[in-house]
Design brief:
By secondary structure, the protein is mainly alpha-helical. The protein has eight helices and five strands; from the N terminus they run αβββββααααααα. Helix 5 (99-116) packs across helix 6 (118-134).
Length: 176
């Protein structure tokens, strides 16, 4: 028997046509008859489809992930260590592509935390106040009192801690 004849018999056995002429296939895992659109594509598979339906593959993948969490975590860690630059590039591309969405999520998070966590609120208020003092914007007597020194003194003290390459213009970018 020719190979084409064998493949033809396999296809006829696994594929049936319903009344409205839609093609269906029997899943190799659940043995249910399902339409072609319920299977992932696979060039090597019969009819160019996977042998298992999408729902069976999804169920299998969920159970596999649950059973092998540590193994998957370790593989991810190894990949990230071996492909540091590639991962950084992908993260950068994602952040540029989804800039507005990430900004909105961050804004929502900060709003929620500001109203939920007293620690977060205090940090935020102190950062804002110190930032205003260093920029000489809206310096009040209360700010100086809370800080324990004047803004000018704080700024000169922080500058004395700078390394040779550091300046107010490159803060946050030093060491990168």
């Amino acid at each position: 028997m020719l190979q084409k004849d064998i493949i033809g018999k396999i296809k006829n056995k696994k594929m049936k046509r319903q009344d409205n002429d839609t093609k269906v296939k029997i899943c190799s895992r659940c043995n249910q008859q399902k339409s072609f659109d319920e299977y992932h594509k696979d060039k090597k598979g019969v009819f160019g489809l996977k042998s298992s339906c999408k729902s069976c593959i999804s169920t299998y993948m969920k159970s596999y992930t649950q059973e092998n969490k540590e193994k998957i975590k370790q593989q991810g860690k190894v990949y990230r260590n071996n492909n540091e630059e590639k991962v950084k590039q992908k993260v950068k591309e994602y952040q540029l592509k989804h800039k507005e969405h990430l900004y909105q999520k961050s804004k929502e998070y900060h709003f929620q935390q500001y109203h939920i966590s007293p620690y977060f609120k205090i940090k935020r208020l102190l950062r804002d106040r110190v930032s205003k003092i260093l920029g000489n914007k809206g310096v009040t007597k209360k700010s100086n009192e809370l800080l324990g020194c004047s803004g000018v003194y704080l700024k000169s003290y922080l500058e004395s801690l700078f390394f040779e390459e550091m300046s107010w213009g490159n803060h946050g970018g030093y060491g990168k």
